[in-house]
Amino acid sequence: MTGRPEADANRVLACGRSPVELAALVTGGTDADPDLAAHAESCPYCQAELAEQQRLWQAVRRAAQAPVPTPPELVTRVLAAVHGVRGRSGGTPIELDQPGGRLLVGEPAVVLLARRLVTDFADQRGDLHVREVAMVDAGLQVLVSVRYRTEIGAAMAALREHLHAGLALHLGDAVPAVDLHVVDVIPPS
Amino acid sequence: MTAADAAAEDQALVARAARGDQHAFDQLVRRHTPRLYRVALRIVRDPAEAEDVVQDAWIAAWRALARFRGDSAPSTWLYRVVTNTALAHLRRRRQTLPLAEDFEQTQADPRDDGPERSALRGEEVALVLRAVATLEPAQRIPLVLHELEGMSYEEVAEIVGSTVPALRSRLHRARVALLGKLRELQ
User: Fold this and answer.
1) Rounded-to-integer distance, Cα A124 and Cα A122, Å
2) Cα separation, B86 vs B88, whole angstroms
3) What ipTM does the predicted assembly reach?
4) CA distance A104 to A98
5) B39-81 tens-digit pLDDT
6) CB contact (8 A) between residue A82 and residue B109
7) How many whole angstroms separate alpha carbon A102 and alpha carbon A111?
8) Which of A5, A161, B17, B52 is the most buried (most CB within 10 A)?
């Protein structure tokens, strides 16, 4: 291995074998070629390459074993997010007047629409993360976390504008009031 | 609880949730969120983004519940939902911020190895995950599922919508690329 994957793909050892072929012996990913295994056993070039690959692959094995702690309260936040889009029992739909009658838009549809708009905005910026969108009383409540150094006031004003414009496109004059809450600041690395 | 018991319990919870039992769906969230978060984190590498992925995945799962026909185990279905969500997230997110190092901190092995050894192991894990993050998503996702999550070829093929022979080939290329990247980063 030379350190450049594309270079490794073309590299050939002095014995004519390639590191790519040998990788299958180390990672166990494909059925080992018995001819290659027999050759590698007595080939000093292959032995050196195999030793290096084994050293690197051991690190992958150890990484697989390393525990990944679940952030505190993650499950609670996920449940809140799910409950938000599920809508409240007995929630009141938004009413839109249309020629010929009324159009009712249910709470889950409004929340999903708002969540999509906030997520798009957050993806575009890269420094906001949606934590919950739900109907509370007669309005939408949007909880977000922000990265450290984000100008919170400006970011929230832009989010509010984006959200209102997006909702108005679908709901016209019936856009609900929106409460924005910054609930967390993600610390710098 | 054996794996078979857990799978049967998952099936029962999914069936109840599909009939509108919200508590059953909440129970699925409690049971599977830690694992889905681990997968999401290993794919997107940033803890805040991994949480975004997990939330979006559960909302997608809730919306798709009525269409889940039980052809695969619920855990396999949830893995598919979270990997698809992570993939969509990788495609659309704006890469203007440096990847957080928090993840590397969370990956440090907290077992009683002594602080020095633990720190070294944490650095090694961080290096591996940094290398994994450089792989194309088409290689990264199956590699995470098979090499880091320990899933079988058959399970991974089902999740990524591939055949086992095609998956083996893709994984081989992913392993070669990962070895090369690890060497480069050391």
Assistant:
1) 5
2) 5
3) 0.84
4) 10
5) 999 999 899 999 999 999 999 999 999 888 878 899 999 999 9
6) no
7) 20
8) B52
